[in-house]
Specification:
single chain; alpha/beta; Rossmann fold; Double Stranded RNA Binding Domain; 3 domains; five-stranded parallel β-sheet; 7 strands; 47% helix; 15% strand
Length: 229
């Protein structure tokens, strides 16, 4: 049985061994999580050749044990079983996090099938028993959890920050958020009912809390973070 955990890999150095379709998907996901990614392989797929990102480095040669130097985690994504096992053995010798794609028996962590809606992350795992079934469940969940969840969490985060700036006691926030949730805020966002949203915000939080202004504050913060990174 695996211990479920979410890793913060922002600015951490990660290695992907392999140059094919699986390696490209693993590299893409790591980059989306703001990791610094090195991909090493004697050849690269067209997708990896064309992948451009300031935090991506391609090394065109076979894997070497020294490639693990300074890395936080490694993902083996080759079709060479002997090489995959070597990567795992090298990583275990260094007490590193290691995932070998589609071979859970030689992983010390596995990667679930993921649904992302902004800051909402839903992970589906079968503990490596049936990745195909995990994928099917993910597709079913994607129909249930739409883009409104991303907006909902962005709004809740903006409200929390505004409350903290106004010196509200953190312990007083819980009943306010519960009222917003029970007031069908999520459904209002899904229906883009701005009038109802603003009425609920005013009822629960008072004046100075409007949907558009709160989302603008989120956009401004995201822009500032992107500029500083």
């Amino acid at each position: 049985m695996f211990y479920p955990v979410n890793l913060d890999i922002k600015n951490r150095h990660c290695l992907v061994v392999g140059g094919g379709a699986v390696a490209s998907r693993k590299a893409k996901t790591l980059l989306e999580c703001e990791a610094v990614v090195t991909v090493v392989s004697p050849d690269f797929s067209d997708v990896l050749e064309k992948m451009e990102h300031p935090s991506l480095t391609r090394v065109l040669r076979p894997y070497q044990t020294k490639d693990l130097d300074g890395k936080f985690l490694v993902i083996g994504a080759t079709n060479d079983e002997q090489l995959n096992r070597r990567v795992n053995a090298d990583a275990e010798a260094r007490n590193m996090l290691c995932n070998i794609a589609d071979v859970p028996d030689i992983c010390n962590f596995i990667l679930p099938s993921i649904i992302r809606r902004g800051d909402l992350c839903i992970a589906v795992s079968t503990s490596g028993k049936s990745p195909a079934f995990a994928k099917q469940l993910r597709k079913e969940l994607e129909k249930t959890f739409g883009d409104e969840y991303a907006l909902f969490l962005a709004l809740m985060g903006a409200i929390r920050k505004k409350l903290l700036r106004e010196a509200h006691a953190p312990e007083a926030h819980k009943p306010l958020f519960e009222k917003l949730i029970k007031g069908d805020l999520l459904k209002m966002i899904k229906n883009n009912d701005r009038i109802a949203i603003n009425q609920l915000l005013a009822e629960v939080l008072g004046r100075g809390y409007t949907y558009d202004e709160l989302l603008l504050s989120v956009a401004g913060e995201n822009k500032a973070n992107a500029a500083s990174s």
